[in-house]
Amino acid sequence: MNQIRIPRDSNLRFVPMMYFLPHDLISRCPTLRKLPRCFREILQSDKLKAVVESDQFLLEIMDASAALAFRHFGFRGWKEHYTGYCPVWQLSYSLPLWVKLLEKEIGFGLQAVYEEPFIPFFKPEYIIETMSRVVRRAIDEQGWQSILDAVRKMPCDEDFEPWDTRARRGFYRKWYHTRWYEKRELTLVSLEDCMADEDDKIHEIAADPFDTQKYIDSKDYVERFKALLSPKDKEIITLRAHGHTYEKIAEMLGYKNHSGVIKKIRHIRKIFEKFENEQNQ
Fold first, then answer.
1. SS3 180
2. Helix, strand, or coil here: 178?
3. Per-residue burial over 146-176, b = 16 or more CB atoms within 10 Å of its CB, e = otherwise
4. Three-state DSSP class for 143?
5. Averaged over 184-203, what is the pLDDT?
6. Under DSSP, is residue 230 helix (H, G, I), strand (E, B) or coil?
């Protein structure tokens, strides 16, 4: 058996990851998809080796492997919803690490792909399950868990792309200028959560034993907003805060059905958005 040796600075070392990519992902990469699924064929062709050593190959394999890894960090949305400022986005681009851990997990390295005359595509389920283990192993071995916890607790506007996505909407629902990090936990004050999906609950203001002034300021912010609402609007917010569904609120307040409550919620949202914009000017 011939022992294959590849220079450490060569893009050829990333070929196993290319062969591990699912068909639907590699089909969107014009440079990767034109390479044969036989590593020996690539090594025997100067033209094909030049393709692998190109910047375009490196760009596509980095983007594709990052997209494959990102979903397993446990954050909402896709890699494309985030910017390069997001620490999780940056971690997902750890291509050399993914290649190394992929070989450790399933033995799929340079020697393995070299010995195969043809490498078929893996089943999507197997790729997902394997990559989940690879990312989990990276988190544990590299000590990334504290980074991920911090990103979840303290997201920043710069982390998200400007277009409308679920990830960005979720961020804005919890983003307030009255937001602070306590010694033990992050307290998020969010009125808009009462306007969220049926399974969500409103976040009440929690007393802050470490900073009384910030608690007072945030409570004042909420009270000034509630002063703009009608008694019926306030009642809906209170009932949502206690976890009642739209159907239950409709029954309690005498609406024919829950669509009337949803219309009220949308009206409250518009009032809130106007109020928040005025406060941030």
1. strand
2. coil
3. ebbeebeeebeeebbeeeebebbebbebbbb
4. coil
5. 40
6. coil
Euclidean distance between CA atoms 142 and 280, whole angstroms: 40
Domain ranges of the chain: 11-151, 174-279
- What gap in Å lies between CA 30 and CA 28, rounded to an integer? 6
Q: How far apart are CA 71 and CA 54, in angstroms?
A: 27
Q: Which of 233, 170, 161 is nearest to 197 (CA)?
A: 170
pLDDT digits (tens, 9 = 90+) for 49-63: 999 999 999 999 999
| Encoded tokens for 170 | 């979720």
Tokens of 102: 């992929």
Q: What is the DSSP letter of 119?
A: -
Listing DSSP states for 183-201 in one string gives SS-EE--BSGGGGS-TT--
Amino acid at site 229: L
Residue with tokens 């070299």, as numbered in its chain = 114
Closest CA to 167 of 93, 82, 92: 82
The tokens for 273 are 């958005």
